[in-house]
Every structure is written in structure tokens, then in C-alpha cells.
Amino acid sequence: MTSIAIIGAGPGLGFAAAHRFGREGFAVALISRNQDKLDEMARALAVEGIEAGGFAADVRDRDTLVDALESASADLGTIEVLQYSPIPSREFLRPVLETTVEDLAAATEFSILAPAAAVSQVLPGMTDLGRGTILLVNGSSAATPNGRVAGTSTAFAAESAYGTMLHEALSPEGIHVGQLIIPGAIGGGDPLFAPEALADRLWRIHTDRGSFRTTVGDSAVA
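Above: the chain sequence. Below: its structure as C-alpha cells.
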């Protein structure tokens, strides 16, 4: 069996994606900081017949993140799909003139170095499989700079550039890299932004293996 590792797993999009991919036969590795909450989600998935496990890690501690991915692969099977979708911290969401060097350093760790470490960890397994998908989930500032959320906007732009380069480099190897831009509040009442609808989008990115970027609400991909 192969697995999906969801970094930033929570009760909204993370759980919906776990359920969507689990229904398709994937084992699910749930990764976030709180082991109790992860275990609760894993039990809920088990009720649905989905094999799942929780692996606690802080994305700003790369060693624990790599260890969690290693344990997930050992327990649940080779990671075929990696989803990177943690929620940015508040210090990344300040106006540009209030954003400090330390804020930018933390945002860089969160949105560039952590996903790079995660990709480095799972890529050998995907290469051995001859297939795989890396899913990056970002807000609209990943595509259009927003001075009101300068830390995230800066780091998301770099994450987008990194993902674009990975998309180009890994496509010939059968590994797809796709980014989902969500320009709105998840679960805010618009059915396009319901967690289940977004999870369906992630599944389609995995199966359709098209261009790098998909934007929710874009009529070309709706």
C-alpha cells in the first residue's frame, strides 16, 4: 500500500483531503503539532475503513518533520502523495512596514525550507515507485503580492517558484507537482471553498496531472 502524507492536517481541509484520498485506497499519514488531535482524526478515519496514523511534528523544526515522514512511510507504506498545507502563523500576516527580519526568517522556514525538507525526504520513495504527486496549498498572495500580509506573501512567492521548478524537473520522472491557490476563506459559506470541494480539487490535481497552478474560482479550471 502507498500513502498520502498531509502536513498541516487539521479538522478542515486536511481531514477532508484525508477522507478523499482514503476513499481511493490510500493510507493516510496525518502530520501536525498536536498528537492528541491527530489520533482523534485517525480514529474517525478508521471508522470509515481508512487506514490512518498521526505523526506529531512542527514544520519549523525540520528534524522532527523529517522523522515524522520517515515513520509514516515505515508504518503506512511509501508516500506517493505529499500535501503541504499548514496554516501560516500570525506573525507572517503583518503589513510590510511592520514585518521584521525575524518574521521573514520564520516565514522562510515555514514556507520554503520545511517543504523543501519534506520533498527531499519523500522523493526517493516516489522515484522508486515511478510515480508521485506533490501538492502545495497556498493563499492568493502566492500569486499576487499583498502588502498587508508581507511575510506570507514573500515566502509563498518563493514556495511558488520552488514548486514551479520542481514541476518542470520532475514531470519527466512521472512525478507531478501541483499548486492549489485558494483566494478565500475555507469553509466560509461559498460551496467552492468548502473543505470537501477543495479536497476534490486536490484529488483532480493528482489524477489529471495538468499544469502547475490551479486557482479556485478560475472559470478555466472550475
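The longest helix spans residues 101-129.
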